[in-house]
Specification:
The complex is a heterodimer of chains A (179) and B (578). Chain A is α+β, with helices and mostly antiparallel strands and 179 residues long. Helices cover 23% and strands 37% of the residues of chain A. Chain A has a domain of 125 residues: Sandwich (Immunoglobulin-like). In chain A, a hairpin with a 2-residue loop joins strand 2 and strand 3. With 578 residues, chain B is an all-alpha fold. In chain B, a hairpin with a 6-residue loop joins strand 1 and strand 2. Chain B has 18 helices and 3 strands. Classes of the chains: A alpha+beta (179), B mainly alpha (578).
Chain lengths: 179, 578
Amino acid sequence: MTSFMPPADRHWWKVPVGRQELIWIAIALVWCIIMFLMMPLWHVYGKQNLSTEAYQTTPAKFGAKVEEMIAKYKVGEEAGIPVVAPPAGSDIYMLGRLWQWYPVLKLKKNQEYRLHLSSMDWQHGFSLQPININLQVVPGYDMVLKITPDKSGTYSVICNEYCGIGHHTMVGKIYVEDK
Amino acid sequence: MSEFRVCPDSGFYFHKSAESLMKVNAVTGIVALLLAGILAIGVVLTRWQEVHLLAADKFYMVLTGHGINALIFWIIFFEMAVLHFASSTLLRCRMATPRWAWAGYFLMLIGAVMNNVAVFSGQSSVMMTSYVPMQAEPHFYLGLILFAVGALIQVFVFFGTLVIAQQEKTYQGSVPLVTFGAITAAIIAVFTIASGAIILIPTFLWSVGYVSHIDAEMYRVIWWGMGHSSQQINVAAHVSIWYLIAGVLFGARPMSEKVSRFAFLLYIFFLQLASAHHILVDPGISSEWKIFNTSYAMYLAVLASMIHGLTVPGSIEVAQRSKGYTKGLFEWLRKAPWGNPIFSAMFISLVTFGFIGGITGVVMGTEQINLIIHNTIYVPAHFHATVVTGTTLTFMAVTYLLIPVLFRRQMFLPWVAKMQPYVFGGGMTILILFMLGAGTLGVARRHWDMDFAGAAMAFEYPAIAYTLMAVGAIGGVLAIVGGAMFLVVAVGSLLFGKKLEPSAGILESFVGKPLHASVYNVSKPEVLQMAAPLKEEAHTKGGFEAPGTFGLAMLLLVTFVVYYFINWKYLASVWPLG
C-alpha cells in the first residue's frame, strides 16, 4: 500500500499522472524558468552586475601597484593607514591582509572607478557596510570591478571571510564625497 | 541458520548483520550530534553580543568543531544507517559483505576522532570549509579523508545489498520509492566523495610539505563540488524518510510513483556539480558560467523539491481523506497525530525546509542577489533551515520510530519526546528568521565580535542588528534545549528504556498497534509483494485528490515569488557595479 513497498503496477511509469500534480509541475516549472531568465535580464536592464574581469597576480606585484597609487594620490593618513584620493575614472586598489584593508579610499559621488581587489595572504571577504555589498577576495587573483558610488558618506569595509584570530579587527574605510 | 527477525508491529525484517550496522552507525551519529550540540552552546552564547561568552580563539575552534560534527559526522553516520535500512530491511534481504561495512564504519570512526583531535588541539581552527592557504594540521585533512573513504565503502556495501536483493528475488517488481530515494542519495554520495578526494588529498599533501602550492580559487571550486553536492545527499535522504514516515503512520502511498521517482532523478542530474552558488562573487568566473551552473536554465533541482513538497503532504492528505477526514480543506491536517513526535517532527521539517530553507537558498543562489548576501549571517541561517530543521529534525523523527522497531526499547520519557519537535523546531525557526534579518543588515558570519573591539577604525552596526542577533540567540538556546531533549530521549531509551517484551504496547500511542516479541527466528523472509492496486474510484476521480495540499503549495509559491522580487528590489538600491 505504501511508499516502502514496490509499486502496485509493475509498469508504474505507464500509469497516468493526476491532474493536480501536472498543474503544480507546470506552474513550478514556469516559475523556475522565470527565475532563470531574471539573471540574464538583469545583465541587460539591471545596474548591479559583477564584472568578470580578473588577472592572476602575486602579492608582490599587487602590493607594488597599491604603493604606486598611494605615492601618487596620498592626501593624508588615518590610524596609520594612508588615505588616497585617486582621480575619477582611474584604477584604484585595495588590498586585504592580516588584519587590515589598505589603503583608505576617498572617492567622488557618481563617478566610475575601476576597483582592484586582492589579498596578500589568506582569503578575505570584502563587505561594504552599511550598504552590504560582499565580494570574495582571493590571494593570487586581481579582481577588477567598476563601481559608481551613488550616495555620499562614510562607508566601512569589514572582513566577512574568516581569516584568523584578528578577523574582527579588519575594518577599512571608503569615503564618498559630493563633488 | 535464522538470521532475520521480523518486527511484528511494523512488519519490517531485520537482518542480524545489517541491524548491528544500523545501530552502530546511528548511535555514533547521535554521539556526534551530542558533541555538536555542546559546541553550539559556545557558538550561540558568543554571537549573542551581550553575553559574548568565549574568547576569540576558543570561539573559532568551537565553531569549526560545531560545523564539522553537525554537518559531516552526525549526518553522514546517520545516513549510513538509513542506507542499510533502505536496502537490507526494506528489501528483506541479507547484507552484502558485512565485514567490509564494519571496516568502512571503523575508518569513519577513526577519521572522525582524528579530525576532532586536530580541531580541539586548537591548531586547526580553519572552519569546516578549510579554505587554503590557511592551513590546518595534517591530521585534520587526513581524518576527513579516512572518514570519506569509510563512507564510500559503506555506500558500496549498500549497492552490493541491492544486487543481492535483486538476484535472490527478495522483492517483486521495482524497488520501493523509499529505497529509490536512498539510491539517489547514494549515487550523489559517490561523486561528492570523489570531489572531496580530488581536493582534500592534495591539500593533505600540501600540509605535510609534498605539494608546494594549492590555488585558492581552484580549491573553492572543487571543494564546493563536495560541500554543496553533499547537501543534496541530505535532501534525498530526508525526503525519502518523509515518504517512509507518511507510509508508516498513515499508510500513505505515493500519489504517483512516476512523478516522485522522476523528482529524485532530477536531484542526480541537476544538482550543480560545480556548486556554482558558492563562488558567485569570486574573481574571474564568467557570468554565463555562473548563470548556467546555478540554474541549468530551468532550476530543475528546485523543481524536484517543489514536486516533493506537493507529493509528500499530498499523499498524507489522500490517505487521511480515505479514512473520513474530508471536511473542508484542512481537516486531514488538523486531525493528524500532532502529539506523535514522529509525525510532528517530520511535518515541521517539511514546512521549514520548504518555506525557509528552500526559498532562501534559491534567492541567495541567484547570481546578482548573492552580492548582498554572500558570507553574511544570512548564509548560516539558510542552511540551518535545510540541514537542521530539514535533515536533522527528520532524522530525529525517524529515530523515534527506530527506538522501538530497531532498538527494541520502550521510549524513555515519552512526554519529553512529545514536546521535543516543537521546542527544537520552534527554537531553530526563531534563530533562523532573526539571523536572516541580521544578515540583510550585513552582519558577518564566522565573526567573533560585532563591536569590532581593537579595530583601528570604528564601525558600528545599527542597534537593530544587535536586537536581531539577541532574539536569534534566544531561539538558539531554545533549540539547544530541544536538542538536549532529543538526546535525553534517544540515549535514555537505549540505556534505561525497558526492553520490549511480548505485547509491551509501547507503540500503541504512537503507531496505534501493540508490540510483540521480535526474535531471530526467520531464515528466509517472505518475498516482498507489490503494493495492492488502487481501488477503481481513486483512479477515475476527476477533481483534485488533495486540495488542501494544493492550497499550501500555492501559498509556498506566492511567498516564494514575493520574497524573490523583494530581494531584487533591495539589490537595485545598492551602488551600481559592473
